[in-house]
Design the sequence.
């Protein structure tokens, strides 16, 4: 999974040697890095996290985030990467670097994580689209290794069978799971033997999955598998996440148990905004970004803070604009905002004054924020 921008805070990189490179499909490949003993403590991570690669392509320096496919117990950094176009930076990454070369790799980050519960009986469902399989692969490997009472269901969508990244690894995981993991493949541009598995993964498909796959529960004759779902993991494009997250919520899964990760920019709210806010006009905004102080005036609060700053041309970091990635995290120092639902900040961080600019509706005439978090 590739993200677009980093936070304003500084990212610490280390030079790591490329230990393995493998082409998976026509437009996806994997990279595995060698971690020297002196850096092992720097590269400890949780399933679902990502690292940033810094590299040069066509004379320009790129910093792109990629989710890890490796699980913590494997003690390695392995990534799955999609080549978007023939002249993209990821194409250059694939064609330029060979095993033995060194690349700048950041320390692991990200909050698309789960609390491990090895002593509980859990049911976890995952939805992935394309290269969105990468963090779910990390999660599922880790859960199978650490939670021997948890069962897993993965629903993985691709255009056709030739585009399924990590299929062999997923099938092997399922085969060796002793029935604890099941994988179902969906093709949007290829006919399948069953109509259920043809088409995109979306809310309508989720309802069919609930009724036709996650129905009878062998462990409890009085309920369905869906009734027993504890956590839902979703990774893919924004429209897919929005449709599936709302379908899961409308079918009884609490929002706090629905976790999602984007791999491209998305400008819409995942869940509908149900509140009406009092109108505020001529809002004075002072903010610190990349060690510089800025001041501006917002016409009103009809548009959220990040989006208004971007419209005015300020270089505020962002990726999703949907409260998922945390790239626009900042500290509210003065003023008042309404922070809409977000997938990133913890309650403790919110109490400390942290907000996500992309999910913040300004409610005061003046506001002061700091994007330079350390």
Sequence:
């Amino acid at each position: 999974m590739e993200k677009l921008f980093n936070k304003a805070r500084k990212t610490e990189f280390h030079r790591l040697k490329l230990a393995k490179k493998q082409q998976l499909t026509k437009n996806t490949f994997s990279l595995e890095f060698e971690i020297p003993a002196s850096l092992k403590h720097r590269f400890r991570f949780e399933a679902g996290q990502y690292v940033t690669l810094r590299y040069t392509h066509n004379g320009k320096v790129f910093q792109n985030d990629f989710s890890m496919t490796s699980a913590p117990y494997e003690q390695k950094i392995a990534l799955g990467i999609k080549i978007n176009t023939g002249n993209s930076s990821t194409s250059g990454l694939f064609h330029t670097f060979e095993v033995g070369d060194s690349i700048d790799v950041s320390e692991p980050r990200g909050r698309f994580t789960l609390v491990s519960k090895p002593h509980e009986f859990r049911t976890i469902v995952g939805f992935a689209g394309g290269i969105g399989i990468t963090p779910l692969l990390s999660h599922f490997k880790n859960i199978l290794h650490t939670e021997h009472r948890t069962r897993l269901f993965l629903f993985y969508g691709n255009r056709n069978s030739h585009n399924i990244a990590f299929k062999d690894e997923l099938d092997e995981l399922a085969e060796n799971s002793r029935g604890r993991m099941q994988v179902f493949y969906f093709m949007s541009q290829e006919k399948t033997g069953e109509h259920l598995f043809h088409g995109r993964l979306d809310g309508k498909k989720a309802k069919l999955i609930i009724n036709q796959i996650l129905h009878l529960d062998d462990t409890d004759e009085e309920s369905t598998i869906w009734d027993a779902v504890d956590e839902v993991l979703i990774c893919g494009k924004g429209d897919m996440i929005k449709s599936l997250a709302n379908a899961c919520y409308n079918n009884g899964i609490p929002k706090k148990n629905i976790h999602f990760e984007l791999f491209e920019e998305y400008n819409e709210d995942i869940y509908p905004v149900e509140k009406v806010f009092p109108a505020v006009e001529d809002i004075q905004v002072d903010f610190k970004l990349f060690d510089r102080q800025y001041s501006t005036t917002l016409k009103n609060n009809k548009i959220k803070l990040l989006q208004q700053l971007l419209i005015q041309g300020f270089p505020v970091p962002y990726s999703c604009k949907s409260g998922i990635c945390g790239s626009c995290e900042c500290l509210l120092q003065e003023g008042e905002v309404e922070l809409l639902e977000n997938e990133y900040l913890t309650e403790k961080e919110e109490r400390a004054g942290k907000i996500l600019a992309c999910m913040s509706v300004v409610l005061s005439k003046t506001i002061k924020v700091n994007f330079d978090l350390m």
Remarks:
- Residues 25 and 162 are 7 Å apart (CA to CA).
- Residues 1-5 have pLDDT under 50 and may be disordered.
